[in-house]
Structure formats: C-alpha cells, structure tokens
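As the next step, I needed to go through one protein, both as residues and as discrete backbone shape codes, included below for the reader:
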Amino acid sequence: MLNKVSKPARTRTAKWLGAAAVAALIAGGAVESGLVLPNPAHAELRSLSQPVQAAPSFAEVIERVKPAVVSVKVKVQTVADRGNDEDQQFSLPDLPPGHPMERFFRQFRDGRQPGRQQQPRQFGQALGSGFFISADGYVVTNNHVVENGSDVQVTMDDGKVLDAKVIGTDPNTDLALLKVQGGDNDFPYVRLAPQKARIGDWVLAVGNPFGLGGTVTAGIVSAQHRDIGQGPYDDFIQIDAPVNKGNSGGPTFNLSGEVVGVNTAIFSPSGGSVGIAFAIPASTVDQVVTSLKNGGQVTRGFIGVQMQPVTKEIAEAIGLKEPKGALVAEALKDSPAAKAGVRTGDTIVAVNGEEVREAKDLSRKVAQVAPGKTLTLTLYRDGKERTVSVEVGTQPKGT
C-alpha cells in the first residue's frame, strides 16, 4: 500500500527518537508525548530544517527598470530587385552592330524576355532590443539591429508600439541611437552606470530574445576587456547571464538599476546561449551616444601612429620589465604625434597617466579624446621614460 510504513522503518524511527530523548535530557531539555523539546537556551540544538536567510531577489530592481526596455523591430530587404546569378554572369556575345540576334541576347541578359517576370523585392524583419536613455524618447540599440533597415518600430513594456527614427549609427562600436516619434516626452528611462562593473558583480540582462519581449536573465561579470575581433575599439564586458538572438541592443543592469553595458554579441557554436555574452561598456556608450545625439555621427581623436604589439621578446630587447604598451611602427608624416616628437621605435606606455595595456588600448584611449584637446603621452625610449604633449587631431573617415 502507498502509505504503509515497513516494520524496519518504524524500528529505526523509534531508536532515533529514544537516542534524541536521552540527548535532550542530558542537555536540559524535556520529552513530552514522544516529542523532543530542546531547551531554548541551547541554540545548537535547533532543527537543521529551520528557515535560513532568503537569497537576494532582483524583483525590486526589475520592477523599476523594465518599463524603460523596449523591443526593436526593423523592416529589412532580403532579396534585391535583380535577376538570378546566371543572369549576372551572362555577357553579350561578340556580335556585329545591328545584328538581328543582338536584341534577343540583350533581353536574355537583362531578364526581360517576353513572358518572364521580374523577381519581386522581398522583405523580412530584424528583431532586437533597446532602452530609453532620456525622457524625451531617445533609445539606444545596436547598429547591426537597424543596419540597412527601414520602418523602425519600438514596442514598450506595456505593449504600446511607436515609430522611431534612426538619429545616427556607429559601426565601429556597434551602437545606434533612435528617436521615438510622438509620445508625451515623458518616457521611462534608465541611466548609465558611472562606475565600471567589476568581475564577480551581479548583472541582469533584459531584452527581447527570440521575440519574447520583457525577458530577464541574471548572472555575473565573468571577464573584462575582451577583444573579439568585431572592431578597432573592442573592449567588451563578458557576462554569463543568458543572452540570445533578439537580446542585441538590450541593457545589462547592475543591482542599482544602472546600465553597465549594452548586449551585442554571444559566443556560441550552436547559435544559442552557452553562458558567454559580450556587452559594450557604459563608458563607451556614453561617449558614442553623446556624439550621435549632438551631430548624428561620432568624431574621434587621432594622433597618427601605426602600432604593433609589444611581445615578450620585444620587451626584453628594449629593456621593458614586462610586455605592455604600444610599439610605434611609424609616426605618420605631419601627424600630431610626429609634430610632438614621437618617433618610430618609441613605446607608448601611458596616456594622461593611465597605463596602456596593449596597442588597441592606445587606440581606444586616443579615440575618446575630443579633437583639439591636448593629451600627454608617456614614451619609453632608450631605456628611459619621457612625456610629450600632443594636440589631438580628427580621425579621418573610414578609419
């Protein structure tokens, strides 16, 4: 029978109760009706099944920030208005001018022979995430979410759908800024975190994975300063909060409800989350969004040096204690760096007193300085450190 207790089990239970009763009497407790009543003065005898302190809940944070997170939908063209590949590869035969077959071959090449229909344009839909960065309707998302798209719409947490305009994009950092059309300029918004997230900090990702809007996942910051080969300014936060397709452009929050990063990529052999995702740091987002909001494009600093990494062998050869900094392969002629006295063979080890870890770190630090401002470079040359002041120029377009 389901509720039957076997005799050996009853025997074991009775023996256990007897032993417990003896222990309780020795400790100053009491036995009443077969139940052991430990002396309250002896805290060590409390049952192990007593409730423990509950794990922290993220509910309060999510209630505050979730209304500011939106789903982004973009109409994208998937097939161009053109013939098939055979048409593109076909060339006209070498015919004399006015040859009667010339018209036939030209029609065949252009896909306009009688009875043939042009291939229609086809459109699909790109899905992503984003979040309001201000009450007047500015939304941050990824460049790759809106790239080559049109008819952008954002869906708010309450289901309201609004049209949006692309204010500007920055492919180098994969960021885009949208502006919602209409509304009462009183949108719920979130702030960027003023402090960098630390490895081990709790983070919360909110977004639109697989079109499932309003999804929340949790994890920690698992690494910093990741370079995944996506662009010249890669400096990603690595998180283990589950992030999937559709989370792109969505925010990663700290436990204060501040945005520490914008989700942009995942590492996955299958296309789904395996616990490794990458977010653009809030400091980068702040700089890019400010530029896009003010002028629709990003202007970056430029000093005009070609760099290469400092390997262990190079560090030993030039006398550096450890491989760090950026080795100047060439200071471009008439560039800000050349005018300031930077030479080929110098190693730039700091910018404005901040250590340069490697070559890309120098690119990021210089790019963040507004053109026209002056920065201080710390150079390692001939076994000694020296400093030079460089007036920052404007980075040429397309670099």
